[in-house]
TrEMBL record:
The keyword Membrane does not apply. Keywords: Nucleotide-binding. It comes from the Eukaryota. It holds the Pfam family Ras. The lineage of its organism: Eukaryota, Metazoa, Chordata, Craniata, Vertebrata. One of its GO terms (molecular function) is GTP binding. PROSITE patterns: RAB, RAS. This is Small monomeric GTPase.
Amino acid sequence: MVETLSIAVIGASGVGKTSIIRRFVYDDFSETYNPTRARRVYRPSVVLNGHMYELKILDVPPIAAFPSSPAQEWLDARCRGVRNASAYILVYDICCIESFEYVKMIRQQIVDNREGSSSSSDVPILVVGSKRDLQRQRFAQRRSVSVLVKKTWKCGYVECSAKFNWHVLLLFKELLGIAVARGLRHNHASIRLQGALHRNRCSVM
Ligand SMILES: Nc1nc2c(ncn2[C@@H]2O[C@H](COP(=O)(O)OP(=O)(O)OP(=O)(O)O)[C@@H](O)[C@H]2O)c(=O)[nH]1
Ligand SMILES: [Mg+2]
């Protein structure tokens, strides 16, 4: 049986969400900024330790807030499927403090919304610092952000550059690692991360 892991990619506008997904799925990058207006789904497959997983990656256009109820999610087509995602990638631009504030807010809202639900508050969340190639203009030391995210928030942390294809594969591997370690959603806890992306749909991990 092939299991599906749905991953919602959320972040402020222009931080590089679409670029990260397209680099991962198509090994593609565009300097031209085309804001994402409608939610888009990408469905690459991944092989982990001999098991195949289908990823359902939701490229979520900028939203004012995490949908706080099923009704709200239903009313706003941009965030359909966001509430019940199996994992989250929260992207900020390492040069833009406001985009980190946005991630902070969304993370808190995810935690608040999922508290007490059967799918639990320990849903895997990976915080991603994007545009690593613009490192000289960063607003904070990597270490201070990483400590906050890992130690205080208990989330994963990766910095990447979609432009130069640095750590893009790693960030998906990291997230899958967390998801697999936590038993995905309805899953066998024993499966470990290892292996490769399915070559005909993605690049090798
Ligand atoms: N230097 C640099 N530019 C990047 C990188 N990733 C994305 N960009 C640029 O940043 C701009 C925005 O990228 P997108 O991927 O469209 O950002 P987004 O978060 O999907 O934006 P919205 O859909 O509007 O929310 C584009 O001009 C990209 O070329 C990167 O790693 N380095
Ligand atoms: Mg986009």
